[in-house]
């Protein structure tokens, strides 16, 4: 299949670069857990009203009440005491967004766990597509490889001699509800990070003798106590988003020197992963990322870019607790996040894209959002499905790896992601051109069908081609309608060659990356507009603007028609139906043929 072409362009960062947070108030100093326990305590007696309510929302700007818990942290009494104490804690005016409250809910449903047979496990994307109808209902699922089929650990990537350094993100666990951008932590080699993480773990275990650090539920309670009540403070460092090209993959070669079928490089180049047509080298998206975690290191709530799926593997070390929300509840999740921290969303509408916010699962449940959890042990995969919000934290030092993939069932979500990016309450840049991806994938499958006639009869390929064709028809229909409307407005029309992927540019108005055509104006020829925003961004008239058609109407129709080859015999009667289809009828021809 088409090899991945890694070009030399500087990789786009998948996520926004995090900057040093401002507005740090004096109470925000980071302190290690042991020192914190000896800090002086100022407990203000709760009011009767506070004590009656399980969750109390009190905002007392500017006050400086600090609450500390009793020694025995795991008894219900002490938690309740902290609840009422914490309810009195305030948030200063610079950060008055989140009021400590607790739900103590960890009794949510488990995400489904799948245990494929050796035969099922052999093809990751075919297997994931088969379990998707069930797994998607939970947003995330766990895959336990069959016995003897666990990927080998790449010991070379963990050599102590490896002096490649990376910078961590400093996370204040007790402030994770506030959505602050993470400051940078220290620089480590992998070996140094491991030593630091293990020392922290030992100190924490010693100073919390009543918490069984091997018990995931006990750690989960301790974690949410900290996040929800801020009864205790912890600052940890997360070695996230490490480029495997610099730091090595955790996947070792098989005995015969080949790649494990679930090796992420292998998953990425899988014929049914449409994302592989993206030629840009995008770390974390088209290239795996490595994650080094420590006790309480957190990945905050987020969805994958372009609502892609992700697959995550825990190579070694301590477990990770995961939370997931199905894609069907994504908007409910966003509404809940907005409702619980409205000020945060006012100040930074795209806060969920910055992956710095934790909303407790109990709060989501209270808002009617479906949320599940699971514990990922080393040797297990977690898969997240399209638009499924997910979050979690580590139970100690560990090494994980993740990559995105987009199979054919993702296409519809990918298109909707662009709509959400460009028309939602906030704008954000697309990471790649969705229409370029669909066109390329279509061309690729047209080629597959042309060269390999038996593939046409393959149920899997047939289903992929059929879905791809429907997606292409939707896009082509919209595009032709928009082109026709632009032509009616009297803009100039020119046919041009599509640019290299490196030269893809966002629409100045909506931040989508148009591919099939763009509109430029004489006044600033470098700025592109998508067809929907042809008349935006300046006051010039239609005469000054040009619709640049990169893929002709005919070629779009030809591609769609060529994909009809992949349809079943009973559908084959419709094989000349494109020109009569409702989509084609709505699409008026434009000036360029
Ligand atoms: Zn636009
Ligand atoms: Zn202009």
Bound molecules: zinc ion
Low-confidence stretches: 1-97, 566-593
Tally of DSSP helical segments: 19
CATH uppermost class of the largest domain: Mainly Beta
Which features characterize this protein?
593 residues, alpha+beta, Jelly Rolls, nine-stranded mixed sheet, 19 helices, disordered C terminus, binds zinc ion
Protein architecture, described:
With 593 residues, the chain is of the alpha+beta class. It has three domains: 27-102 and 183-237, no CATH class; 106-147 and 244-407, Sandwich (Jelly Rolls), CATH 2.60.120.650; 433-586, no CATH class. It is 32% helix and 16% strand. The strands form three sheets. The protein has a nine-stranded mixed β-sheet. Helix 14 (434-451) crosses helix 16 and helix 14 (434-451) crosses helix 17 (553-562). The model is unreliable at 1-97 and 566-593 (pLDDT under 50). Bound molecules: zinc ion (ZN) (2 copies). One zinc ion binds at residues 422, 507, 509-510, 512, 529-530, 532-533. Residues 521, 523, 538, 540, 544 line the site of one zinc ion.
How is the secondary structure organized here?
Blueprint lengths: L32 H5 L10 H5 L23 H13 L20 E2 L2 E2 L3 H4 L2 H12 L4 E4 L22 E7 L10 E6 L1 H18 L8 H14 L5 E9 H4 L16 H5 L20 E5 L4 E5 L6 E9 L2 E6 L4 H11 L1 H6 L13 H6 L5 E5 L4 E4 L4 E6 L3 E8 L5 H13 L10 H18 L1 H5 L1 H30 L3 E4 L21 E5 L23 E5 L3 H10 L6 H4 L9 H5 L7
Parallel strand pairs: 1-11, 2-3, 15-17
Antiparallel strand pairs: 3-12, 4-5, 4-6, 6-7, 7-14, 8-13, 9-12, 9-14, 10-11, 10-13, 16-17
Helix pairs in contact: 14-16, 14-17, 16-17
Bound molecules: zinc ion (2 copies).
């Amino acid at each position: 299949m088409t090899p991945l072409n890694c070009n030399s362009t500087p990789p786009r960062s998948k996520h926004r670069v995090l900057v040093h947070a401002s507005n740090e108030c004096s109470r925000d100093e980071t302190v290690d857990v042991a020192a914190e326990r000896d800090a002086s305590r100022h407990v203000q007696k709760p009011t009767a009203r506070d004590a009656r309510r399980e969750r109390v929302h009190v905002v007392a700007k500017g006050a400086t009440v600090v609450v500390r818990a009793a020694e025995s942290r795991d008894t219900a009494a002490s938690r309740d005491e902290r609840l009422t104490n914490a309810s009195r804690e305030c948030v200063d005016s610079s950060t008055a967004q989140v009021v400590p409250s607790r739900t103590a809910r960890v009794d949510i449903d488990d995400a489904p766990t799948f245990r494929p047979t050796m035969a099922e496990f052999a093809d990751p994307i075919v297997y994931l597509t088969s379990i998707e109808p069930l797994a998607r209902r939970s947003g995330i699922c766990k895959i336990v490889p069959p016995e003897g089929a666990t990927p080998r650990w790449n010991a070379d990537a963990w050599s102590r001699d490896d002096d490649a350094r990376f910078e961590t993100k400093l996370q204040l666990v007790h402030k994770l509800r506030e959505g602050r951008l993470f400051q940078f932590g220290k620089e480590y080699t992998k070996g140094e990070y491991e030593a630091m993480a293990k020392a922290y773990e030992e100190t924490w275990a010693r100073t919390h003798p009543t918490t069984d650090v091997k018990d995931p539920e006990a750690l989960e309670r301790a974690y949410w106590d900290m996040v929800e009540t801020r009864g205790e403070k912890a600052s940890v460092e997360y070695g996230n988003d490490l480029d495997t090209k610099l730091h090595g993959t955790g996947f070792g070669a098989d005995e015969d020197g080949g790649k494990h079928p679930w090796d992420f490089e292998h998953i990425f180049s899988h014929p049914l992963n449409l994302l592989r047509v993206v030629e840009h080298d995008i770390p974390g998206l088209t290239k795996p990322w490595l994650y080094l975690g420590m006790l309480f290191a957190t990945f905050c709530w987020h969805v994958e870019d372009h609502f892609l799926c992700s697959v995550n593997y825990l190579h070694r070390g301590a477990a990770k607790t995961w939370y997931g929300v199905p894609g069907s509840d994504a908007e409910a999740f966003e509404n809940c996040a907005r409702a619980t921290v409205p000020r945060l969303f006012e100040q930074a509408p795209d806060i969920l894209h910055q992956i710095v916010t934790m909303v407790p699962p109990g709060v989501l449940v209270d808002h009617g959002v479906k949320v599940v959890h699971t514990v990922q042990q080393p040797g297990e995969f977690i898969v997240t499905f399209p638009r499924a919000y997910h979050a979690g934290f580590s139970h100690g030092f560990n090494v994980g790896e993740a990559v995105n993939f987009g199979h054919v069932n993702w296409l519809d979500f990918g298109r909707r992601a662009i709509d959400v990016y460009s028309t939602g309450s906030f704008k954000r840049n697309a990471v790649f051109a969705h229409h370029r991806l669909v066109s390329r994938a279509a061309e690729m499958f047209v080629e597959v069908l042309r060269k390999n006639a038996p593939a046409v009869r393959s149920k899997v390929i047939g289903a992929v081609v059929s879905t791809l064709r429907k997606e292409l028809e939707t896009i082509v229909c919209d595009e032709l309608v928009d082109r026709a409307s632009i032509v009616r407005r009297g803009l100039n029309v020119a046919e041009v060659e599509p640019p290299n992927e490196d030269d893809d540019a966002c629409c100045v108005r909506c931040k989508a990356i148009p591919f099939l055509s763009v509109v430029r104006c004489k006044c600033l020829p470098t700025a592109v507009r998508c067809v929907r925003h042809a008349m935006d961004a300046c006051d010039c008239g239609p005469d000054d603007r040009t619709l640049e058609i990169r893929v002709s109407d005919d070629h779009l129709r030809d591609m769609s028609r060529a994909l009809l080859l992949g349809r079943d015999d009973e559908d084959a009667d419709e094989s000349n139906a494109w020109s009569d289809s409702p989509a084609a009828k709505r699409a008026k021809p434009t000036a360029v043929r």
